Amino acid sequence: MLYIIGLGLCDEKDITVRGLEAVKSSSRVYLEAYTSILLVNKERLETFYGKEIVVADRDMVETQAEEILHEADKQDVSLLVVGDPFGATTHIDIVLRARSSGIPVRVIHNASIMNAVGACGLQLYNFGQTVSLVFFTDTWKPDSFYDRVRENMGLGLHTLVLLDIKVKEQSEENLARGRKIYEPPRYMSISQAVSQILEIESLRAENVLSPKTTLAIALSRVGCDAGTGDTQQRIVCGTLEQLSEQPPESFGEPLHSLVIVGKRLHHLEVVYAEEYAVCRETWRRVAAEVYGCALD
Amino acid sequence: MLYIIGLGLCDEKDITVRGLEAVKSSSRVYLEAYTSILLVNKERLETFYGKEIVVADRDMVETQAEEILHEADKQDVSLLVVGDPFGATTHIDIVLRARSSGIPVRVIHNASIMNAVGACGLQLYNFGQTVSLVFFTDTWKPDSFYDRVRENMGLGLHTLVLLDIKVKEQSEENLARGRKIYEPPRYMSISQAVSQILEIESLRAENVLSPKTTLAIALSRVGCDAGTGDTQQRIVCGTLEQLSEQPPESFGEPLHSLVIVGKRLHHLEVVYAEEYAVCRETWRRVAAEVYGCALD
Question: What's the family (chains A, B) (predicted)?
Answer without folding.
Answer: In the N-terminal section; belongs to the precorrin methyltransferase family.
